[in-house]
Amino acid sequence: MLTSYPVACPHESCGWTGSLVPSSLQGGARAVIASRQRAWFQCPQCQKDWEVRITNDKVSILPAVENERLNDQAKGRWQDEGGQG
Hints:
Elements: E1 5-8, E2 17-20, E3 37-42, E4 49-55, E5 58-61, H1 64-80
Antiparallel strand pairs: 1-2, 3-4, 4-5
């Protein structure tokens, strides 16, 4: 069952608040997220994404520096698997 979480968009000058269903991939389809797993939300107002960790139904926003490091690691794995980029 898909679960929605009460969130507030963390992006400057947006201010949107409401409930969203997370995705397991940035820009991906909504998905069931296991506890302590990273997930993504997309703001319906500004259309920007942000990465979170969901633990015991609590949403914690991951710092942007950690997001960049994780994105670089994921890109490296993707290229190692034959992706182009």
